[in-house]
Amino acid sequence: MTGFAELLLSGVMSGLIIGLAGLAVTLVFGIARFSNAATGDTMTLGAYGALLGTTLTGSLIVGGLVGLLAGALAAVLSYVLVFRQLANRSPISSLLASIGLAFFIRAGLGLAFGHNQSVFQLDIVRPIRFLGLRIQPNDLKFAAIALVTLVIVFILLHMTPIGRRMRAVADNPLLARVSGIAPRPVMFTLWSMAGAVSAIAGIILGMKTVVSPEMGWDMLLPAFAAAVLGGIGHPVGAIVGGLVIGVAQELATPFVGFTYKIAVSFIVLLLVLLVRPRGMFGRVEGVR
Amino acid sequence: MLTIEKLTGGYGETDILTGINLSLETGEILTVAGTNGAGKSTLAKAVVGLLPRVNGRVTLSGRDITRVPAEQRARAGIGYVPQTANVFAALTIVENLEVVEGVKDRKQRIAEMFDLFPALNERRRSRAGSLSGGERQQLAFARALMTRPDVIVLDEPTAALSPIMADESFRRIGELAKTGTAVLLIEQRARQALAISDRGAIMDAGKVALEGPADNLLADQRAAELYLGVGH
């Protein structure tokens, strides 16, 4: 029973990371209207940024901020240099470009940092015992960072004028334009947010495990599955979807093994697309 | 106020508008009628800046806005109520009004809109997607009026309304014009629309086939037979 509860806890942690990546996917899909396959590699870039920042300054906090800024900057640049140029074409063009961009980021990181695994030098702390469960104090910190990120994103989207404009553009881009909403500030905010959220997911993942150029790419399928499960374009849905997939993956580990647990994401994705394509929180598109 | 000269354009390579000349003065209602496919909604999109390809000239108060993006036209004083998808369904009623850009004294203007449409005030925290057709139309009007536009373009505002709601809608449009707002009214209920209008234009195949004072068009035998439907 304790083993099951610990798997559940571990699943929640993985789920928060998957959920953050899914949130970045769903934010971009909701407003820019394509699935951004560079999300995973933006995560990796954030992790390497944080690693570099931590190495140079000796501070995890400063390192984390460097990683966050690196992710946001990379996302904004990808919008300015690639996705804005493709805005008037089919979403497939942007999707394909994002796959190319993902390869480009990964190759660049491999060139700059090599393909060996790197680790954050975190203090080794004794696990907390709670109701017979062993809980890593760092996991609690990571969960707190993930939750604070979610709260900030929620506040930005629902309690600020730019967030309102973003939701308006997501809902009806043409009506937003004839309501005087300029697309450019909305898109810059969107890409900054998506990049920062991806970077935070990557930093947490890197601190929990190891940092390598492939780490983010491996997270892409679970992130897409979380976004689809939650209802594409629905931020809260992406987080809930991430938690469901994270927990499902961890609980499946004793049966399918660590290597194949990622297949759970694929099965969830497939089932959702077959049974309920609009996901848990998605609404029927199109109104009169 | 608003002038349209030799306007051509469309969505792809084919011109849907094949040479439109129209003008609209302050406080005037101009009804644009015509058969389906005549190019009425395309004309509306060209005026508000949503038509991808246009040639010719559109001016607002003497300023050439032909190449001005839609969001800047909205801020410059052109309001628009599309025929469908005319509210932000995922936003609340009050958010639909708050989100509009280019509004002076935003809080006061929202209060004015709720005075004008009291039914909206009662449900101000409801999502726009949950509103009935009539309420949604009121919200669409309120959203477009937030900027106190000089010109408002209404694309078939009564299309989804019952006859009673349509009458109410026409009454409001008449009152709106009395405040000085020029109204470009695209309507299938052409007779009712012309009855509250100063002038009318009837489009056919991307051109203005007939134009003149609304009363003259209503009395015109050819217009009645071809475009307005015979009978009263």
Automatic annotation (TrEMBL), chain A:
Localisation per UniProt entry: Cell membrane
InterPro entries membership: ABC_transp_permease (IPR001851), BCAA_transport_permease (IPR052157)
Record has Ion transport as a keyword: no
Ranges annotated as spanning the membrane: 7-32, 52-82, 94-113, 140-157, 186-207, 219-248, 255-275
GO terms assigned for molecular function: L-isoleucine transmembrane transporter activity; L-leucine transmembrane transporter activity; L-phenylalanine transmembrane transporter activity; L-valine transmembrane transporter activity
Principal location listed in the UniProt entry: membrane
Entry-linked Pfam families: BPD_transp_2 (PF02653)
GO BP: D-alanine transmembrane transport; L-alanine transport; L-isoleucine import across plasma membrane
Region forming the signal peptide: none
Membrane topology category: Multi-pass membrane protein
Family the entry assigns: Belongs to the binding-protein-dependent transport system permease family. LivHM subfamily.
Protein's UniProt name: Branched-chain amino acid ABC transporter permease
TrEMBL record, chain B:
Record-linked PROSITE patterns: ABC_TRANSPORTER_2
Domain ABC transporter: residue ranges: 2-230
Entry-linked Pfam families: ABC_tran (PF00005)
Keywords per UniProt: Amino-acid transport, ATP-binding, Nucleotide-binding, Transport
CDD domains, A to Z: ABC_TM1139_LivF_branched
Superkingdom as given in the UniProt entry: Bacteria
Record GO terms (molecular function): ATP binding; ATP hydrolysis activity; branched-chain amino acid transmembrane transporter activity
SUPFAM superfamilies associated with the record: P-loop containing nucleoside triphosphate hydrolases (SSF52540)
BP terms from Gene Ontology: L-amino acid transport
PANTHER family listed in its UniProt record: HIGH-AFFINITY BRANCHED-CHAIN AMINO ACID TRANSPORT ATP-BINDING PROTEIN LIVF
Similarity comment: Belongs to the ABC transporter superfamily.
Protein name, UniProt field: ABC transporter ATP-binding protein
